[in-house]
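haha ok so turns out i had the wrong file open the whole time. this is the CORRECT one, sorry everyone. sequence first:
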Amino acid sequence: MNQKTPNDDDEELEILQAWESGRLKPVVDMAQQLKAHKVAAEATFKKDKRLNIRISSRDLKSLQARALQEGIPYQTLAASLLHKYVSGYLVDQR
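then structure:
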């Protein structure tokens, strides 16, 4: 039987329990399903448009410093923040 570890969340445990109990069923036409999901994933991350903005030098330096902490290019961080905002995943924690 499985035991919860500090790194597990409830969804992972539910999946594990379903697997162990045999409740999971094979996906019908798995190859077609994988292809459809791959196409959707590629479209999600396709960067096909350019955005030029003007920001303060202070904000740019802060963005670059934060990106350096994260170990990613600052343009990638900026694009990620914009994506999270428009997707409703960016949460103000003040």
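The longest helix spans residues 30-45.
again sry for the mixup
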